[in-house]
């Protein structure tokens, strides 16, 4: 059976191919193709209509700017690249009006996970020779069984992509209520963590004789779903001088090192908590905390401009990550969505849970959310489509680096200048550089492709452009490495 990009396997591909052929053979194909190319082959473009000052009807397309790769590969790829710029600008500086001085400030890469709500199937990582099977009975204390009689061991080797990875060993033992409550209260838990971190840092600075008002904490965080479908946080936390703006670039001697900052982060993450009271019982309370696996790794930006090892060992055996690798790691996760587990980006109702084509683990999470909503947890029923998580995927402190808006405005300005330059070259020196689009009152006319055939053509073109860009980037890096090794004074090959 023919597989088409962006098309579900349940759809008849014959009809879609016919639509593609009709579009490609139509008289207006070139005009339609140029319009699709003008928005980077966005799979769900926004159509706007308006009338200019001369009474002419105008139609333009604009990007959907959706971060989810399942919905729009083109906008998702652009969102990931913007996220890389956002993270790297705040880590290494030197671009987007961020001074290079930020690279020398204490920075820590933090991972905050959820506690264990029950044993789950795990995947064996490539190159990991310690765990050859999912749950070896030697590591769990023998052939033990849960109170429901199910074995707690698993002798199967699960690889990445295995549908069993992340599912509970015993669904009856798994604490689905705690799982959902952690996802629901994670934004508040993070807010309290940042407050606790600042307060803890102030106490330590005051105890060491440093004025705490001279230091500011900046951060950027990205939320990712683990295989068990509970969210966890990756963040970069940086110390800045309070009296110097990011655009200043003055030299500043940090009162603590990155390793000392990592220790303070560990302390704050292990003490912060949110106490939840069951609305149906005043006596029933639950404390929401981060898991015990709090990972803090100082960042070394001295190797940020090279392709050297991502992990180094310093004298205290603390891993030092390079800034470019961290930015690449965070940007990789912002394009993921729940479409891989059968959940669309649109809101769903409680009545639709039984009809969803999802695993028993996903259905149990959705059912638990519905039950908590019935018990009085206000608002959680509206977040079924995010499995109870109500926060942003990406967020940052105000002064960490540039903004998504600034990046998009800069790109729009560059695109407009290039378009006017090309049009002026084609039409001569009398070309009007104003364009006239600013005088049009645009109105929403529609969104998305007119047919699945159009969507497939655009989807395929977007994937080809993404692959070509990545291949070109790899080639540029390869040539840069060769020039580095072959340069005078470089290392001998």
UniProtKB/TrEMBL annotation:
User: Pfam families in the record, alphabetically?
Assistant: RepSA (PF20199)
| Name under which the protein is recorded | Plasmid replication initiator protein
